[in-house]
Target: TetR/AcrR family transcriptional regulator
Amino acid sequence: MKKKPEITAQTKQNLLDAFWALYCEKRIEKITVKEIAEKAGYNRGTFYEYFTDVYDVLEKLEDSLIPDIHGLPPISIKNQDMEMPLDMFMTLYEKNSKYYSVLLGDKGDPAFASKLKKSTKPVIKQAFLEKSNINPIEFDFILEFVLSAMIGIMSYWFREDKVLRAEELVLLMHDLMENGVMKRIKGEL
Model:
């Protein structure tokens, strides 16, 4: 007898939610399949119908949070006004803040930031390289720097309970990218 798709989807979501609740409390290596199954109200056998182990749950959850190239809004660089798409990152981060703030935090998965950068780089590269004659290899390093900074500052913003308004944070990031950190620190702006 086949299971109904909506019941199957709900069971999987219940297991993911149970895992997430545990993951927010403790490191992944301390979480057991038995704990996840019990917290979700199922037995271990049900868990194994959907996942191979605890790390598989984390991977599937992360994969659902990483936008693919088609899930990101298109970036349009008009004329010579070339700017990083900060609003796109802010929207993505706020939409998934419940997860991103943990996964990109001190107790999160160090590989998650790399997955996030890898998914967004192609869209940004395409938009900028069409309008610029910068060396693609050099641009790759620039993007790595900028994306690392953006992920870091947004993670910090969430850890600090959004002490700046979102608009202020976007303006600060824009200013730092356009004018540089040292000019800002020295008060030369």
